Structures are given as structure tokens and as C-alpha cells.
Amino acid sequence: MEFNADISNPFSDRGPIVKSPGVFFGRRHEMFMINRRVIQGSGHTNLAIISEKRMGASSLAYRVFFHDNNASFFKPFDRFAAYGPSRLNVQHPATIEDVSKRSSATYGIFNTDGILLNIERHLLDLDKVANEDSSLRHIRAKQLKLLKDALLKLLHPYVAEIDTKGTTVRYREDGSDKKRPFEQLASGIRSIIALVGDMFLRLSKNMEVVETLEDISGIVIIDEFDLHLHPKMQKRLPNLLSEVFPNVCFFVSTHSPIPLLGAPSKIAFLKVRKTDDHRIQVEQIRIDDINRMQPNILLTSPIFDMEDIFHVEKKISEVHTEDHWQDLERHKETRKNLIDKFQQKLRIHEPDAFQK
Predict the structure, then answer these.
(1) Is 43 strand, coil or helix?
(2) Same domain? 33 vs 143
(3) pLDDT tens digit sequence for 109-129
(4) Are 267 and 47 in contact (CB under 8 A)?
(5) Do 60 and 179 reside in the same domain of the chain?
(6) Distance (Å, whole) CA 58 – CA 222
(7) 21: three-class secondary structure by DSSP
(8) With bands split at pLDDT 50, 70 and 90, how would you rate the model's confidence at 319?
(9) Which end of the chain is more exposed for a tag (fewer CB within 10 A), N or C?
């Protein structure tokens, strides 16, 4: 299915009137069309949104809400979480009231000072009840294990243990005996813990008991997915998120081809462009064999539209065409050995060639 639509940008000067965060007037028909044809009718459980300019992907994803035939606006989905590029600020227990506005479901996607809900406080509370003599002991112990296992799966192989004993959660990195607090971890690990923890707390807010992560459902938007993450984690995390949270629909925007190397099988690609007249142009890119593509193909595909992938200072004739670094190193060594042997034979048969 091919899909194209023009959506006005609600955050530009010419956009529709914003009554309050999460409620937008106008463009009912266009948003209903995206909801029905792309989300409900495509058969895909996740979306990758590729944007040339900032705000395009975020504005589109932020406005995809349920259609109400009896109203002239779109209502936010109650099981909903959105994350912008700033994903390292986590609520401190002592200042929860002060930052409540900055920790709303959609604040962080458009503001750099957004605050994520503190999953560590929840882990410590679960551990405390799990070790008390109460009727909730076994239930909380099961929930604690569920959360720890999910985080460890997402953080593998970088984090090997999560210790929730005491007053501070501590993490033991793989290959180390030392346990570190959240603040001393690498930014990529912290961003995953903060994002996944906040997501769990929001989507399970009105649930009394979470027996399995399949009980968690909702819509999650992650803008600039690749930010803070090492390429290895960029590749692993998309499919892992879909495995750990199978009933969550992820909207992910990225400027990197690496996350697409780990994209789950059921995924739709939306390419977003911002036009000169402050409109957002949306195009669905149909790719059925994403799991067979390498980065060079993805970069020159309609998703990223690069004309070539050569270094700006190199001629095409000088470009290495190997697919793996080890192949390149082996070929360099082979070439060096061949040149050395050729020069040795040349010295024997043509000694004058080496005389000044």
C-alpha cells in the first residue's frame, strides 16, 4: 500500500489553533486518514518515521490520536508516552511535585528540560514490600523480577546485575565486580533505563497488578531514537523493545540507518518532509525485505535519498568496497605482500631500475 498526505504543522505560525496540550483543532479528515490507512489498516505494529528536518516527524506523530466523530478535535490516547532527544533527566523523589509539569506524557518531546518518571523509586518500593511479611509479598516479588529481567534483557551485554537492596539502586556492568549508581553509568545505558522505566510507569499507571509485560499496551513515540546510543545498541534495541513490549505500538524517528538493521518484521516506514509553506508531507515507503538490506542500500534508498556513500575527498576509483573491516585489513596485507614480492623480483631481474 502506498500512502501520501499533506499535514499542516501545528507548531508553525500557520498551523491550527492549539487549545491545550494534546488537543488540536482542524485537519480532522487528514488525521483520520492517517489513523485508518496507516495505523489501523496497514497491518504493521510499529512505525519508523524518517524526517529531513526537525519538528516534521514529531509533529506528525504527536497528532496521531483516536478519531472522534462527535467532536471537532483529537483526544490524546490515555496509554501514551512521548520522548524527545533529552532522555537523561529523571525525577528526584524529593522534588516530584516541583517537576510534575515537566514530566507530563508529551512535555519531553518538544522541550529539552523534560523530566522522566523515576523507575528506581518503584524498584526500591517493590523490593521493600517483597521482603516484608505481608499479603502482597509474593506479588511484589514477582513484579520486581519481571522488571529486572526486562531491563537486563534490554541492557545486555552491558549490565549484568541490578541490585535493589538498600536505599539506592546499583548496577553491575559486565566484566566488573563494582556496582555503580545510575549517575555513574554511560549515557546510553542511562537513557535506556530512564526511557523504559518511564514508559512502564506511564502505561501501567491504572493497572493494579502487572503479571506479564504483555499486559502493557499503548502508543510510545521516541524522537531521535539513535541519540546517546552506540551503533551496536542502535541495532539491537528496536527488535528488543518489540519483544519485551509486544503490545506497544512504537513511533520512532531517526536520522540513522543503523536502527533499521534491527527493525522488527512488522514495521511501516513514513518519510516526513517539511515544505516551504509550513506543511508536513508524509509518504509511506514500502520496503518488504528490510532484514536483507545493508547500510549502503538503506542510505541510497528512498528512505534517506543519499546520492552516494563515498567520502567527500575520495575518488570512486580509490574507494574500498569490502563489506567487513577484517576483509579490508586482510586485503591490505595481501596487497602489501604482493607489492613487496614484485619489488624483490624486480631488484633481481631489473637491478638498474633501483639505481639513481
Answers:
(1) coil
(2) yes
(3) 666 677 888 899 999 999 999
(4) yes
(5) yes
(6) 9
(7) coil
(8) confident
(9) C
Please report the sign of the dihedral spanned by the C-alpha atoms of residue 68, residue 71, residue 77, residue 81: positive
3-state secondary structure of 338: helix
Q: In terms of DSSP H, where are the helices of the chain?
A: 28-33, 56-62, 107-110, 119-130, 137-155, 187-203, 231-244, 295-299, 325-349
* Interatomic CA distance for residues 151 and 217, integer angstroms: 17
Task: Give CA–CA dist 152/158, Å, rounded.
Answer: 9
Cell triple for 161: 546485575
C-alpha cell at 126: 517493590
End-to-end Cα separation, the chain, in angstroms: 71
Domain of residue 148, CATH code: 3.40.50.300
DSSP of 107-134: HHHH-TT--B--HHHHHHHHHHHHTSSS
Give per-residue pLDDT as tens, 9-31: 444 434 443 333 333 333 444 44
Asked if residue 174 and residue 144 are part of one domain, the reply reads yes
Within 10 angstroms of residue 100's Cβ, the number of other Cβ atoms is: 12
Q: How far lies 124's CA from each of 58, 95, 127, 133, 182, in Å?
A: 34, 17, 5, 16, 13
Total number of domains in the chain: 2
Cα distance between residue 32 and residue 64, in whole Å: 8
Residue 329's SS3 state is helix
In a domain, 313, yes or no: no
Q: Are residues 161 and 107 in the same domain?
A: yes
Kindly list the distances between the CA atom of residue 283 and the CA atoms of 18, 72, 154, 317, in Å, as whole numbers in the listed order: 25, 25, 31, 35
> pLDDT digit string (tens) for 27-72?
444 445 455 544 444 454 555 545 444 444 444 444 444 334 444 4
Q: Given this model, what pLDDT does residue 30 score?
A: 45
Residue 315 lies in a domain: no
Rounded CA gap, 108 and 149, in Å? 27
Hey, what's the torsion of the CAs at 223, 229, 230, 232, to 10 degrees?
Answer: -70
User: Is residue 3 within 8 Å of residue 35, measured between CB atoms?
Assistant: no
- Eight-state DSSP code of residue 352: G
